[in-house]
Amino acid sequence: MQEQEILQQVRQWLEELFEIDPEEVQMDTHLFEDLDIDSIDAIDLIVKIRNETGKQVKPEQFKEVRYIKDVVKIIESL
User: Above pLDDT 70, what percent of the chain?
Assistant: First the structure.
């Protein structure tokens, strides 16, 4: 998948999981400050990524995630 396709998918997941308006989700959007995603929400997102991609995301990988672009990079690397 290409970056824009992944971004669209992440937008959809965030809308499903947390009722976040997809328009608010840009590559430079900060997960915690802009979207109010906390550590529990981040785990839900990791589980969603695993369920949708069939690939395991290690929680350590997500420790450095701050922006949507970081999530996209992790998904690209799977």
Answer: 100
